[in-house]
């Protein structure tokens, strides 16, 4: 029995007795209680209703591969080699990188309910409660070298932003890998992160695994633990169907990947700049341990961010550079 089995039973938000859960799962009531405690440590709030049973504080929609595929348009299904949905993984990006090492990976999509070793840019951890985010990775093989992939992470940000805008959200983009959204208090905070990992020949064929992690729901306890403003899609767009959202993001990314090698980032440049969170604003530029203050300009057709420092303009080319808005 896995936490996923228990979550699927509780996902309707109704009250379920320990006896009912035990019978459905084939375990004892004591074992059910232990699994419920594991849920709490996984960041899922479970309420005990005296004399009746247990229910989730927030109803959740488990990922469903068949439902996601049913939402995909025909072109996306043609591009999709395989859709994998996992309850838990150390990292969905690592999983697809292993698939490439086994001769698969291209056109494959992996979605996961919870990651134990998920990471963002610069090795930062990306941890979210079970079933309360959208975490997915896509593998793609490019015939050209790494240079043809300039600006790919920015194009991903545009694709995801387009989807969110159809739901009524107003995302903004932070160079080079973040999608921001206003919190209910009005602060601009991180909603989603993007991680692109490339292996292969710098001048020839290469394999790319792109990862997207987005906060859909987040209990107050988890927000407090983060210790800084965090954006959650449910605050701006309550009632979003998690599987339909996953399908729209997957379809958009597969379409972009299919054409990026020939079109490059130039096809996405104007859209990225329209959503640029800090254009014309002062930002901190961090390179290793060095920090400077600059005014952010626009991104160019290669995905470089131009900044002005003491009247001198220069491009930032990603890598280990971070840019953050100044208060």
Automatic annotation (TrEMBL):
InterPro entries: aa-tRNA-synth_II/BPL/LPL (IPR045864), ArsR-like_HTH (IPR011991), Bifunct_BirA (IPR030855), Biotin_CoA_COase_ligase (IPR004408), BPL_LPL_catalytic (IPR004143), HTH_11 (IPR013196), Transcriptional_repressor_C (IPR008988), WH-like_DNA-bd_sf (IPR036388). It comes from the Bacteria. Its EC number is 6.3.4.15. Biotin binds at residues 91-93, 115, 119-121. Residues 75-261 form the BPL/LPL catalytic domain. The keyword ATP-binding applies. Keywords: ATP-binding, Biotin, DNA-binding, Ligase, Nucleotide-binding, Repressor, Transcription, Transcription regulation. One of its GO terms (molecular function) is biotin--[biotin carboxyl-carrier protein] ligase activity. It is an enzyme of class 6 (ligase). It catalyses: biotin + L-lysyl-[protein] + ATP = N(6)-biotinyl-L-lysyl-[protein] + AMP + diphosphate + H(+). Gene3D superfamilies: 2.30.30.100, Bira Bifunctional Protein, Domain 2, Winged helix-like DNA-binding domain superfamily/Winged helix DNA-binding domain. Belongs to the biotin--protein ligase family. Acts both as a biotin--[acetyl-CoA-carboxylase] ligase and a biotin-operon repressor. In the presence of ATP, BirA activates biotin to form the BirA-biotinyl-5'-adenylate (BirA-bio-5'-AMP or holoBirA) complex. HoloBirA can either transfer the biotinyl moiety to the biotin carboxyl carrier protein (BCCP) subunit of acetyl-CoA carboxylase, or bind to the biotin operator site and inhibit transcription of the operon. HAMAP family: Bifunct_BirA (MF_00978). This is Bifunctional ligase/repressor BirA. The gene is birA.
